[in-house]
Amino acid sequence: MADEHEIRSGAAGMTGILATAAINRERSTIIAPDVYEWVKAGRVFSAHHGILTTPAAFETDLVRQTPDLLVRVPGSIVIIPIMVQVHFEATGAAVAQILVSSCDNDPGVANMTAYTPVNNNSRYAASNSKVTAYITNTGATGTAPTNVCELARTYIQVDVDAVTGSANYDQFKYSPLQGLGAPAVIGGADDVHAFMVNVGVGTSSTGYIIATWAEFTYAEYYGS
């Protein structure tokens, strides 16, 4: 529930523009899920695993401590996942599995490579994300994720990279604001939380991952 209040903006105290704002019971301004407003404000970032014609090497099975893409969210920051796409370049005849999840602890970043998130608004291309992203897993990250929330998953029994002709489709898409997977808010006041994408194929497999999220401070989102 929310009440309507008035807020003022301006550098000289209360002499700026007067406008109404919706405030929730936790005293924070309600942040509507208008993705283009988030992009306009420079709050949306993306991480990529596999670039151009050089695909990433995926894991052979789903193991929580070996994510293929990890977003490590520090204390005082909150992220809202917007989209994950996974596309296979080669799977052989093996079954492919994909899992998108979150946890409320720091799973560690051992055996992973840091990736600098990219702002989705080119006006803020030089603006740095408040989180850190990691890709290219070569082993366990170090700590078992706790209180895991599974947001989306798929099990593909067919050889998806063998599709020919005019067929063109999203091999996997997590897009909670479009009803594809569960919505989530990830982040705590003081402790590290994480957003993870795991891809597991029973044999050697390659492909691409795109993950996109919006960022807020804990105080902005929760009003404290």
Describe the protein's architecture and organization.
The longest helix is centred in the N-terminal third of the chain and has 6 residues. The strands form 3 sheets. Strands 3, 4, 6, 9, 12 and 14 form a 6-stranded antiparallel beta sheet that branches. A 6-stranded antiparallel beta sheet has the order 8-10-5-13-7-11, with no helix packed on it. Strands 1-2 form a two-stranded antiparallel sheet. With 224 residues, the protein is mainly beta. The chain folds into 2 domains: 30 residues, no CATH class; 189 residues, no CATH class. Helices cover 5% and strands 41% of the residues.
Describe the structure using short key phrases.
2 helices; 2 domains; globular; mainly beta; 224 residues; 5% helix; six-stranded antiparallel beta sheet
Helix-strand sequence:
EEHEEEEEEEEEEEEH
Mean pLDDT: 85
Report the helical percentage.
under 10%
- Taking the alpha carbons of the first and last residues, their distance comes to 17 Å
Binned strand content: 35-45%
The tally of domains stands at: 2
Structural class: mainly beta
Q: Tell me how many strands there are.
A: 14
Spell out the blueprint of helices and strands.
Elements: E1 2-9, E2 17-24, H1 35-40, E3 44-49, E4 56-57, E5 69-73, E6 77-90, E7 96-103, E8 113-115, E9 118-119, E10 132-135, E11 149-156, E12 172-174, E13 193-201, E14 206-217, H2 218-222
Antiparallel strand pairs: 1-2, 3-9, 3-14, 4-14, 5-10, 5-13, 6-12, 6-14, 7-11, 7-13, 8-10
In short:
This protein has 224 residues and is mostly beta strands. It is built from two helices and 14 strands, in the order ββαββββββββββββα. The strands form three sheets. Strands 3, 4, 6, 9, 12 and 14 form a six-stranded antiparallel beta sheet that branches.
